[in-house]
Design brief:
The chain is mostly beta strands. The protein contains no helices and ten strands.
Length: about 120
């Protein structure tokens, strides 16, 4: 019997798994012991910097930031690619909605985002 700690949706569980040899005469379905939640350290709070005033560019869908094409303080033009968002194995270009300056970048390369999350703010 081996024990594992597994976290699902922020809730930690301690589970026991019995390893069964392929050639053993074990029953086809072994009974499963119900996992009880265990007290675990609270997950680290997400970095939630206050959002600057200006035009917010939101994530159109959940995904992962593959690449940032701009940095804070950079001048941008309408239609310019701000970042690449990977969702459902497709790379989506997040375009600049207006001319301006990047006031704040709220994500980093490799970050997971949800639909509606503020990716960056423009002035």
């Amino acid at each position: 019997m081996r024990k594992f700690n597994i976290t699902v949706n922020g809730v930690a569980y301690e589970v026991e798994v019995e390893e069964v040899a392929a050639d053993s005469a074990a029953p086809a379905a072994a009974p499963v012991k119900a996992a009880a939640p265990v007290k675990a350290a609270a997950p680290a709070p997400a970095k939630t910097a206050p959002v600057a005033a200006g035009t917010k560019v939101n994530a159109p869908m959940p995904g992962t930031i593959l690449d940032l094409k701009v940095a804070q303080g950079q001048a941008v033009k309408k239609g310019q690619v701000l970042m690449i968002l990977e969702a459902m194995k497709m790379e989506n270009e997040i375009m600049c909605p207006q001319d301006g300056t990047v006031a704040q970048v709220n994500v980093s390369k490799g970050a997971s985002v949800n639909s509606g999350d503020v990716l960056c703010v423009l002035n």
